[in-house]
From TrEMBL:
It comes from Thiorhodovibrio winogradskyi. Pfam families: Transposase_31. This is Transposase. InterPro entries: Rpn/YhgA-like_nuclease, Transposase_31. Residues 16-217 form the Transposase (putative) YhgA-like domain.
Amino acid sequence: MTSPPHPNPQRRREPSHDSGYKLLYGHAAMVRDLLTGFVPGDWVHRLDLSTLERCSGSYVTDDLRDRADDLIWRLRWGQDWLYLYLLLEFQSTIDPWMAVRIQTYLGLLYQDLIRAEQLSANGRLPPVLPIVLYNGSQVWNAAQTLEPLIERAPPGLNEYRPRQAYLLLDEQRLAQAEQAPTRNLSAALFRLEASRSAEDALAILHALVDWLKEPEQSSLRRAFAVWFARVFLPKRLPGVSVTPMTDLSEVYHMLADNVEPWTEQWKQQGLEQGREATRHLLTRQARRRFSPEIAEQSQPLLAQISDLDQLEELGDQLLLSPDGDAWLAQLKAHGHAIPIARDDDRERPETRA
């Protein structure tokens, strides 16, 4: 039986991205569009979206309120409440134990609801929908239920196995597969995250300016402007100084004025993100196919290869290599090979990672 991955205590967090999303998903309109646009099932349409309210104060204790990466909302489903637990996952590696974390957090939430006597009319606990919102470049590969993480037990114990599950929303894959609805605030955010050019981002911003033009939407307009200027642009254009802005129209005009000089840098940053994602995937596959030691030796060799075509070709070589030594030999050979000329690189020198 394949053993679950070992816990990684040194997983790094990107607090600026977490706080930016927490600012956006602190607005009911964002949560509403997340539910209607991405949660499967007709039951969503029976929710009273006008009753959405963020849980704070007496509803949850400091143990949950002080977490930097989650939000708790509730809304009416008939006469009772339904809770939404939204966990923001922007860490540098995928947590293979996410299902365990979700069960732990929901247990804490239920304990708090019991203490606060926030029960149904029948004295029961409310249903909770746990959502993991993930925007990483890697394809999510962690178990989405708790059961696969637990070893087999004698047949008589099967009914006692926990089966906690969560709904994964992988932003990058949803946007790339064009599965997101058109006029939807959360979908616009996902498309911005997956955009690969300044022109694409400009088109999405233009739509957001139009959708958020009503006076009562001023707070969400400001949240988008702050996230775009302080989180999104610095990530896409490292080294470029961006003036802090609090108005979405101002952000749109700023990007429109700079779309030409920023296009090439934006493109190069996207290529580098693609290289890093491919290197990470190859390292993970080498660990699974050969050993952790071979994977560790692969990392510096992969870092020397900046051509994306060569990195993608190595995916085939990894499957064909009979052992770890043969794989490392392939890496060394590619590291000294002349980079393959890509169509978008023929008119300029290649930027090495």
